[in-house]
Amino acid sequence: MGYPIAMKNEKRITACTLDCPDTCSLAVSCREDGSLSFTGNPDHPFTRGFICPKTARFCERLTHPDRITQPLVREGANYWPVSWDDAFRLIAKRIDRLRSRPESILHVRGYGYRGVLADASKWFFGKLGASTTCGSPCDSAGMAAFEEDFGALAQNDIHDLGNAARIVNWGRDLSRSSVHLAAIVRNARKGGAKVLSISPGGDGNADFSDHMVRIRPGTDRFLAAALCMGLADAGVADEVADRCANFEEFRGLLAGLDLGELLGACDVAPEDYARLLRWYAADGPTATLVGWGLQRYLNGGENVRFIDAVATLSGNMGISGGGSYYGHSSGRNFIKWAARDVAPAPRALPVHDIGRAIIEADPPIEMIWVDGVNLINQLPAGDVTAEAFGRCGFVVAVEAFFTDTALRADLILPCALMAEREDVVGSSLHDWVNWSAKVLDPPGEARCDWDILAELGSRLAEPIIMPDREEALRTALDSPALHATPEELRAAGFLKASWPQVAFEGMCFAHPDGLCRLPDVLSPEPDAHAKYPCRLLTLVSRRAIHSQIPVDEDPEALEAFVSPANPCVVGLDTSVPVYAATPRGRVAVRVRFDETIHPSAVIVRRGGWMRHGRSLNPIIAPMETDRGGGTAYYSQCVRLEN
């Protein structure tokens, strides 16, 4: 691995482009032995000199011996090196043959690495007229809920949490997700704020909280509806009710509910409910953190909507120290250059059930290009997606490792990773825009996506010429929130976008009439499956982002964390092999007991590789959330068995 600059004993500033809200500014240095070191940039106002363990170890990923460093073509069960020239010839030949029916080409783009220039493949395949995907495996149900409620996805400046008297952490694992949000919450407590965390348990939130409330998985809307009932009974201020377009209709919905039934549905003790109600009704602002897990249920968007309703009816929206925090778009600070002069895709296949959608596509999918995502491993029914890839005539994966997805490709193109490519990144948590500088060369023949697509486009019979890279950056940065140039951002390293400190100040929301919308229905929870009584929660890991784990670091077996009171452990023999089983199959696990976990939950940390039997996604059925085209992973019923 070479370095474009002399780095030993000095630091170069870049930025993290992983799929994480913190979007840290990084200091990269080269030690005397030639190894790399990633640390937080101490001069960055948000990063403040510290980063998570996942990013701190990313240098090991860059230099890992298993990394793919040259184009590879599959012949039977094996992969063989091929020159870039031959690789481009193979791809161009296939695209030229399909050019008259470009909808038969499917482009799948994920966020394994993010940035303004990382959208190059969106532009390229958009110009080609290829099919694309819709929905998401992550936060789209919650995003759709916020837009439905308030007209836009927005939140107070994250540091405004320091002005809260109380913080209700509704579902975020502060010990494993955003290290900077955890630090902000910790500092708010030091400043006098009280913190109450709500979750099915099994997290590290006790260290960040004054009170813990355990809830049945997926039933957050019932607790939130109960709180709305209590707030309505106590009397909602006229100035709050007047800012709700459908307040009377919502009050009618609440009138038909029974408090005991709501608390029974979510399995929350009356004393915990009473404490929460006091928190939201008390003087002084209460801020609400909305987690990125409670939307991964069939009624996930509804869960978020009722939590938003609690924040609204309690008078905590549009004020400093209050607000409902879900995040904002990491791209909101940029002009979407990749969408310019690009016609809408002829069709979009749903992400949550992508394998079946490919198999059933008419006209059929004859070529797949996938970049930035290990979708066979990370999406439900990965076995079906693997079958779909096998049926497709030609699959190209832009990848750095032999992931479960790459191993179903006919051609693997080695790509540059973070710190090996130049880009600009925004955050879904804070308002700083960071320059992600190239500080080292990619190994071997690996190339950045932009260069790959530029070369490929020039080789087509009808060439697709990539825009000027600098002009794309200039366009993206000339947004109302920035009005910056690439030169200014490169010189500074980071710039702060201009957004209000308080979102929806004065309860003036982003709908055309300025009013918010309260939920109009409370959906019942699906009945428990007689043979599979628990919910399978594949939660965030502390050690890696999703499946970005070298295969040699995977544990021997997945660990399943359950309560000793879980009905699945009755008669279970943990001295012999144990399996997590669903109607789609079963995967070996090692049982670990944790009394903090709700008895109806089985918790497994995500990230293991499917081909080694360490991913549960193959046994998760494709299910779609109630809005936003999200993936309802956590509505999967499961049991433990020998």
Describe this structure in words.
The longest helix is centred in the N-terminal third of the chain and has 15 residues, at 84-98. The chain has 18 helices and 25 strands. Helix 7 runs antiparallel to helix 10 (259-266), helix 7 crosses helix 11 (270-281) and helix 13 (354-360) packs parallel to helix 15. A hairpin with a 2-residue loop joins strand 22 (578-582) and strand 23. It has a six-stranded mixed beta sheet with strand order 5-4-16-15-14-6, covered by helices on one side. It has 642 residues and is of the alpha/beta class. The protein folds into three domains: 72-137 and 331-492, Rossmann fold (3-Layer(aba) Sandwich); 140-325 and 503-507, Dimethylsulfoxide Reductase, domain 2 (3-Layer(aba) Sandwich); 534-641, Beta Barrel (Barwin-like endoglucanases).
Topology:
Blueprint: E1 11-15, E2 25-30, E3 36-40, H1 53-56, H2 58-62, E4 72-75, E5 78-81, H3 84-98, E6 105-109, H4 120-128, E7 132-134, H5 140-150, E8 166-170, H6 179-190, E9 194-199, E10 211-214, H7 220-234, H8 238-241, H9 247-255, H10 259-266, H11 270-281, E11 286-290, H12 300-313, E12 324-325, E13 348-350, H13 354-360, E14 367-371, H14 375-378, H15 382-391, E15 395-399, E16 411-414, E17 423-425, E18 432-436, H16 449-459, H17 469-477, H18 486-492, E19 494-496, E20 534-539, E21 558-562, E22 578-582, E23 585-593, E24 601-605, E25 637-641
